[in-house]
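Q: Second attempt. The first request was missing the SMILES, so the protein and coenzyme A are both included now.
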Amino acid sequence: MFKIEIDQEIHLELIHPTHAEDTFEIVTRNRELFGRWLDWVEATKSAEDTEAFIDYALKSYAKHKELNCMIFFQNRLVGNIGLLGIKKRYGVKVGNLGYWLDEKAHRKGIMQRAVKKMVEIGFTIYNLEKITLKCAIENSRSCNVAKSLGFTHEGRHRADIRVGGVLMDVDSYAILKEDWIDDEL
Ligand SMILES: CC(C)(COP(=O)(O)OP(=O)(O)OC[C@H]1O[C@@H](n2cnc3c(N)ncnc32)[C@H](O)[C@@H]1OP(=O)(O)O)[C@@H](O)C(=O)NCCC(=O)NCCS
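A: Got both inputs this time. The predicted holo structure:
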């Protein structure tokens, strides 16, 4: 397991089975909020489900298909961020960001800082050419993360995700490597 320092308050750790208990506890406590926007929440019913997810994420990491990390704020696990679905699509190397944060840790800029670091890793370590971020159009808090970091709004996909039985339209944001300037993010 490796650790990536972001600043004095925040660090990332590669997802690991030892994170399962804390992760499941956060998902349980935030079930109503997360269940509005994340399609896997309903199916996460026990710590074993979280362990199975971690196992899948580590296998995908080994195959260079995703980088999934836990977010720590003042050394406490507060969230998760993943650079997912890493692949060459129509000749362009892309990855898609996904994330969640314990409600207790909201409005401190934690996710903005975590996304900024993952974008840097995506472009410099994984040599991605484009990083996408997709959120339901009503999920303004998530869309704000993309906007605040200078992602470009590329369009809207109708009926693109079903969460808790609700079909939602999705806004698609992206940043290109050629647009990315480390200090400006
Ligand atoms: C999406 C989500 C992570 C956003 O959380 P958040 O706390 O709004 O985002 P950040 O951690 O980037 O914090 C930004 C907020 O902190 C404030 N802030 C405070 N200190 C800050 C700092 N040092 N730097 C930057 N922003 C700071 C910002 O002003 C902003 O608040 P505002 O929206 O009231 O203007 C959270 O709502 C969540 O987990 N939702 C449920 C899961 C989800 O929707 N996942 C995404 C699916 S697409």
